[in-house]
Design brief:
The chain is α+β, with helices and mostly antiparallel strands and 86 residues long. The chain has a single domain (2-73), classed as Ubiquitin-like (UB roll) (Roll). It is built from three helices and five strands. A hairpin with a 2-residue loop joins strand 3 (53-56) and strand 4 (59-61).
């Protein structure tokens, strides 16, 4: 496992109640699953993540590829919800 940081933007930040958090994960999908468990008390969080796009260390990653994206120790994941008009 790797210690990674997930940063939340806009509606994701509001739903998470924090701007970022660190967690242990091997893959992007594992990191997102862990984050969903951490914020299971707010159903908005899972809904926002479902509509978000993700960057890993500055590179766009499609949600369908999340299971195959291996995270190195220290990786930064950016959770970018859809914005108005986009």
């Amino acid at each position: 496992m790797a210690i990674v940081t997930i940063r939340y933007w806009a509606a994701a930040r509001e739903a998470a109640g924090v701007a970022e958090e660190s967690l242990d994960a091997l893959t992007l999908s594992g990191a997102l699953d862990t984050a969903r468990r951490h914020h299971a008390g707010d159903q908005r969080f899972a809904a926002v993540l479902a509509r978000s796009s993700f960057l890993v260390d500055g590179t766009h990653v499609g949600a369908g590829a999340a299971a195959t994206v291996i995270l190195p120790h220290g990786a930064v994941i950016e959770a970018l919800p859809t914005f108005a008009g986009g």
